[in-house]
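User: Can you predict the 3D structure for this chain?
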Amino acid sequence: MILTLGLAWLFPPAAWWSGGLLLLMGVILLAYRLGWNGEPLVLEPTEAAGPELAVVFIQGEGIPPERYRPVAEAIQRHCASRRLWVALPRFLGDSPIRRETPLVVAQARRALEQRGMAAGSPYLFVAHAAARGFH
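Assistant: Here is the predicted structure, written as structure tokens:
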């Protein structure tokens, strides 16, 4: 604490920058915790019996989660022996950032459990990333 105050006194611009970054991080945390980024799209199981499982799709850069819905529904149709839940979470600006992924996953888990999925059910994560520079 004393070192931080000393550095802020010696380098005021650094204090402003670091304070601004801390504020931005706090806003990002609140955005995901309070759902300012929008609620995850949750698809309930199409089957009434079988073991429960959740699939969480992590979108590619700039791709809205709704675009993954047809794929998610096809996976549900082909998993007739399971109660398959699907969550399509939303990143701020449809831009998945690695350090925000735990926040999005926690938000998706809360949404799944609020819709009726049993706590402690297993999860499978599917991520899509587009390679840059390839045409």
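The CA atoms of residues 12 and 88 lie 43 Å apart. Strands lie at 41-43, 52-58, 83-88, 123-127.
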